[in-house]
Amino acid sequence: MKQHAQQREQADPVERTRPVPLFVAALTLGVVLIGVAYILLSESFGPPGMGDRRTVADLRGAIPKPGQRVDGKQVFTANCVACHQATGLGLPGAFPPLDGSEWVQGDERILANILLHGVTGPITVNGANFAGAMPAFDRLSDAELAAVASYVRASWSNKSPPLTAEMFETERKNGSRTAPFAGGDELKSLAARTP
Predict the structure, then answer these.
(1) Domain 65-192, classified CATH 1.10.760.10, yes or no
(2) What is the 3-state secondary structure (H, E, C) of 29-85?
(3) pLDDT digits (tens, 9 = 90+) for 31-71
(4) What's the pLDDT tens digit per position in 66-86?
(5) What are the sequence ranges of the domains in the chain?
(6) Do 160 and 154 meet the contact criterion of CB atoms below 8 Å apart?
(7) Is pTM beyond 0.85 here?
(8) What is the C-alpha separation between 148 and 164, in angstroms, rounded?
């Protein structure tokens, strides 16, 4: 009896060229040409319903003119609400509350300097400890800073009198600080100094 040799290996793979089908190539080329034609033939700004065409200036709103009243709630919503929340209660462990805060209702100069220069480091608010960073808002006008400070001092359970733009102007001129305050202790030392 004769045994057949057992084939143990697979056949070698064969490379075949499989070009893209003509239909697929033509369809792709057609879509590309339609896209190019759309871009070239469409208006540069297009109809307003086709997307948001607002600029940064539009989103920021009109810059208040001297003597014009600034809406403190609007300034708060645009700059502060993300951290301190619309309720003024902040986020426990992350961002301190403004509602009932001794820093908000206390010395007006301290609040003005917090807004102008920011705070970085440990601070105690309403008996709770926070260690974060608040940016400086010195880019805002004195009128905007006074409006937002006055809004915060009179909102929620806070019942403190408003601040004036002149006070922010004075603090801005008198201050030579270029860095944020290093926590609550440095803010307290500011209160001890006479203006």
Answers:
(1) yes
(2) HHHHHHHHHHHHHCCCCCCHHHCCCCCHHHHHCCCCCCCCCCCHHHHHHHHCHHHHC
(3) 999 999 988 887 665 555 556 666 666 666 566 666 567 88
(4) 656 788 899 999 999 999 999
(5) 65-192
(6) yes
(7) no
(8) 11
